[in-house]
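Assess this:
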Amino acid sequence: QVQLVESGGGLVQAGGSLKLSCTNRGRSLSTYAMGWFRQAPGKEREFVATRVWDDESTYYADAVKGRFTISRDNAKKSVYLQMNSLKPEDTAVYFCASHMVRNLDGTWSADNWGQGTQVTVSS
């Protein structure tokens, strides 16, 4: 079983920072690639970042490159998203995801989702 729980969202001013955490509290012993998506009001859910366990490669959406950093702690079965230089455009509900797969067209999909945590960046 996989149960993803996010935390760390909140309200910050533009230019500020937040760190999101996601922990797999399920009973499964398997390890899956984990990452983050977000969904802004009136927008489609979009890929943000992921870290591939097999080769430790990282992938970021163009909108967050240079500002966000994804990391993991295998012992804690957790993945983190350090968000710096936040912009109002980053305002969204952020979802943790596991068992992520990169599709042939370059988009990402996932088999499991957390409940989401709200990030609001004021101008």
Notes: The chain has a mean pLDDT of 91. The CA atoms of residues 99 and 111 lie 6 Å apart.
